[in-house]
Design brief:
Helix content: 40-55%
InterPro entries: Phage_tail_E/E
Strand order of the largest sheet: 1-2
Number of helices: 4
Structural class: alpha+beta
Oligomer: single chain
Protein name: Tail assembly chaperone E/41/14-like protein
Distance between the termini: 36 Å
């Protein structure tokens, strides 16, 4: 599990939230993202819901900077490792 510390903590349903944890994506998470007619921002939001296992409404309450930085923090988990040359 990875963690992200919020720049702007929030209170959601009476819970004070300062840190969000998220897991690595699985194949089903990536396939679920690839639905036609869904905007890129909706894909990111849906992926964050799955990876953090938190409600969509909670993620929509995040400060804009926190939402963007949390989104950016999952990008390395979606990339294939670079092959290194042995020459």
């Amino acid at each position: 599990m990875e963690t992200y510390t919020l720049l702007e903590p929030i209170t959601f349903n009476g819970e004070n939230i300062t840190v969000l944890t998220y897991r690595r994506p699985k194949g089903r998470d990536l396939i679920k993202m690839d639905r036609p007619g869904v905007t890129e921002s909706q894909k990111v939001l849906n992926l964050l819901v799955d990876l953090t296992e938190r409600p969509k409404d909670l993620l929509l309450e995040l400060d804009g900077r926190d939402f963007l930085q949390l989104s950016q923090s999952i990008l390395p988990l979606l990339q294939l490792p670079q092959e290194t040359s042995t020459t």
